[in-house]
Amino acid sequence: MSLLRQLRKLVLGETWALPLGVALALGAAGIVRAVDGDDGWWHHGGGFILLGLVALALTGSLAGALRARRRHIE
Amino acid sequence: MAFVLTFIGAMLACGLEMLEALAIVLAVGITRRFRDSLIGAAGALLALAALAVVLGPVLISRVPLAPLRVLIGAFLLLFGLEWLRKGVLRLAHLRSPSDSFKEFVEEQEELEGMPLPPAGRPDWAGRTIAFKGVLLEGVEVILIVTALGARPGGLAPALIGGGVALIAVVGIGVVLHAPLSRLPETHLKYLVGIVLSTFGVFFAAEGLGVSWPLSDAALLYLAAAFFLISQLQIRLLIREQAAAVAT
Description:
Radius of gyration of chain B: 20 Å
Number of helices of chain A: 3
Strand content of chain A: under 5%
Low-confidence stretches of chain B: none
Largest sheet of chain A: none
Order of helices and strands of chain A: HHH
Shape of chain B: flat
Radius of gyration of chain A: 16 Å
Structural class of chain A: mainly alpha
Number of helices of chain B: 8
Mean pLDDT of chain A: 84
Number of strands of chain A: 0
Oligomer: heterodimer
Shape of chain A: elongated
Mean pLDDT of chain B: 84
C-alpha cells in the first residue's frame, strides 16, 4: 500500500492542484479545438492558449503553498 | 534543436533521479552490506528493464499518434510542472533545498536502528529497501525517457541522455562511494522542470492539432516563456512572504 502511495506521488506529484490543473487545461484546450475545427485560428495560435492555461495551473498550485505558509506564520 | 533539448532533458532528469536512487543504495550498503544492497538494486533494475521493454513498444504500436502526443504531453507536464513547482518554492525559500546528501544521511540514520542478520544469511530488509528505492526512482526515469523518446527522432537523444546519466552516476558511486554534496541540485531540478514542461506543452499542443510557428524552434521560446513565468512567480512569492512576515 505504501509503495502504491509512493508511486501515485511520483506520477501525480505531492498536490492534487497540479494534476487537476493539467487535466482542466488539456480538457479546455480539447474543447476549444473541437469547437474551432482543424483549420481555424486554433491551428496556429492554440499552443499559446495551452501555455497560458498551464501557467495558470502552476500558479494555482503555488498559491496553495503560499496560503499554507501564511497560516504557518500566523 | 529538438535533439539537443531532448538529450539535455533526458540526461538531467535521469541523472538526478539516479542520484537519489544511488543515495539509497549507498546508505544501505554502508550501513548494512553492499552485497545485499546491490542484489536489491539489481532486482529493481530487472523489473524496470521489463517495464521499459513493454511500455515503449505498446504505447507506440497501440495508441494512434495524436492521442499519444497528448498522453505524452500530459505525463511530461505532470513531471515537469511538479519539478518546476518545487523549484520555484525552493528558490523563493518556501521549501528546503534539494539535497541527495541529506537524504543519504537520513536514510543511513534510519537504517542504523534496524538489526542486521548474522553473516552468511540474506539481509532481506536491506535488499527490500534498496529494491524499493531504485524501483521508485527508476519508474520516473522510464516514464520520462519513454515520453521524450516517443516522438519521431526522439528515441536516440533520449536514450543517449539516459545512458550518459547512468554512466556518470555509476561513476560517482564507484569512484566516490558517497553522493556528491556539492551539486547545485535545486537549480538543476528547476532547469529540468523547465525542459520537461516545455516538451509537455509542445507535444500536447501538437496532439491537439496545433502547428507551432517556427516548428521545432518553438521549444526555445516555450522554454524562455517558462523561465520568465517561473522567475516572476519566484519574485512574487518572495515579496508576498516578506509582506506576510512584516504584518
